[in-house]
Write a structure and sequence with these properties.
Number of strands: 17
CATH class of the largest domain: Alpha Beta
CATH architecture of the largest domain: 3-Layer(aba) Sandwich
Shape: globular
CATH superfamily of the largest domain: QueA-like
CATH topology of the largest domain: QueA-like
Number of domains: 2
Distance between the termini: 24 Å
Length: 341
Amino acid sequence: MKRQDFYYELPEELIAQDPLKDRSSSRLLVLDKESGAVSHHVFREITDYLNPGDCLVINDTRVIPARLIGTKEGTDAKIEVLLLKRKENNIWETLVKPGKKAKAGARIRFGEGILIGEVVDVVEEGNRLIQFSFEGIFEEILDELGQMPLPPYITHQLEDKERYQTVYAEHTGSAAAPTAGLHFTPKLLENIEKKGVDIAKVTLHVGLGTFRPVKVEEITKHHMHSEFYQIDGEAAEKINHAKKKGGRIVCVGTTSCRTIESAADKEGYIKPCSGWTEIFIYPGYQFKVLDGLITNFHLPESTLIMLVSALAGRENVLAAYEEAVKERYRFFSFGDAMLVV
């Protein structure tokens, strides 16, 4: 299966640059995964497609303000650092631009020196391991100096940092938001629960895989970077209960999907667990737990559109995307949503 099999044409003006004021007023394209039929709605109408006894799985990770702009010591050279994965001893795996100015031993000053980073190693894909030194609490310094790590296709400044967080974001650790969850409001979640739908919270800290395009022609040769996930006893019980009673498991976002599919046994049941996952889901994959998916519209040739295609079929998904382009839907992180059931 080739990377180009997941390409589609997208006019640049359909890439959403700003979030809507009302999260739940996004548009919603509903795709029937069996027939390929599509219909058009407003996101808050998602409740019409969830049934009593279903379980909605959400990812409660919280994005850190992981983008730091600093200067290389001894020069005025600007260096941008994106924090990806925390190691030990205040060492982080990072993406650095421009990389040629960040050789091992280079020191970078942030915020007039309240935070200093030293490049200690260059690892896979050219990522840098940076050891940070500071006084005080790292998270507080990061909150003061860091910016939200918006994807490169968003060029507008984000006025409110919280608009790149879900309303249920809780456990800090992501380098990007689980964007399908951005459409929910507290009121909408309340209405879903009132309908008799259980909401299970899992955690997957979104990492490097989000920023890595598929470069190989044959997609099976693509390697996903590992991301940390956690499922507690309450979430496992809710998912298993819905499954036993014949309810559907509907995931909010590809990250929630990857979490439960990584954790499930062959029968599709889940035990409380935590660990690292490199799961790559593409057409041919047999889902063990997932029945439905709420997701945004993804980049052409990305691992995310491949995952959606595994659930609904490549032809159905590409036809739905073509319809979304025709109907002028808003695409990517701050864009509109799609429900696959």
